[in-house]
Amino acid sequence: MKPRFFNSLTAVVAAVVATAAFFPAGSEARANSDEGKHFVLRLLNEEEVPGIDDLPEMDGAFALVLYSEIDGLEVKALGKRRSVREMQPYDGEKYVFALASDGKRAKSEYVIRLSRNGYEEKDFDVSFREDSLQTFEIDYIDELPRFLGESADSFKEWVSSNLKYPEGALGRGAEGTVVINFAVGENGYLTDITVAKGVAPDLDAEAVRIISMSPKWTPALKDGNPVKLYFQFPVIFLLRDSKRPSQVL
């Protein structure tokens, strides 16, 4: 999603809402109908990844493992000369794929598309750095959270209208994108607010401050019940040329 800039601010501040990126915690029930569902996923860390035995040799490719109870997932890599090959049959717990790109391991950035009948398609980024294996947990929700009765996208407008560019950051010409993690809880209030990627202490603090002030949301729903859902929310601090110091120390 492209950033939106709000030119009424003296120091232009843009806020962008990312799509729900993490597993809705505490949700295990399964719906009888799969109409109108939304995929949600969470990247697992090393401590959370169950042991994966007997993975075939990768021949220089990357491995993608998707843990999910959703049967019948279709997975493909977007882009020319990129492919997804099933390495193991779905066992009711996980899908195991090999990702290839011209046979060159150096090309480690992928866009993966999930699809299934009755579900909204979802694209997500997979990045391989030092490891050749990435693991995700995938679930679904029936309704996404709503902010002040509107879609989650309206939250970016509320953030942009309430953010204040820190004076110290203005003085030294500090700019950048602060990435915030937060959850919309089952009661609609935001929790688990943390800085996933910081820029400078004052910019980070301002991003956390405004997210913490959020009014109550309408929580996500799964099988008619509210569930906790995590978001990543990039807040972009950008100075107009007229507000840049003549020399940044």
UniProtKB/TrEMBL annotation:
One GO cellular component term: plasma membrane protein complex
Cellular compartments annotated: Cell inner membrane
GO terms classed as biological process: protein transport; transmembrane transport
Major location category of this protein: membrane
Signal peptide residue numbers: 1-20
Record PROSITE patterns: TONB_CTD
InterPro entries per the UniProt record, alphabetical: TonB-dependent_transducer (IPR051045), TonB/TolA_C (IPR006260), TonB_C (IPR037682)
GO molecular function, one term: energy transducer activity
Record-linked Gene3D superfamilies: 3.30.1150.10
Domain TonB C-terminal span(s) in chain numbering: 150-246
The keyword Acetylation appears for this protein: no
Membrane topology: Single-pass membrane protein
Keyword terms: Cell inner membrane, Cell membrane, Membrane, Protein transport, Signal, Transmembrane, Transmembrane helix, Transport
UniProt keyword Acyltransferase present: no
Family: Belongs to the TonB family.
Protein name: TonB family protein
Organism: Candidatus Merdivivens pullistercoris
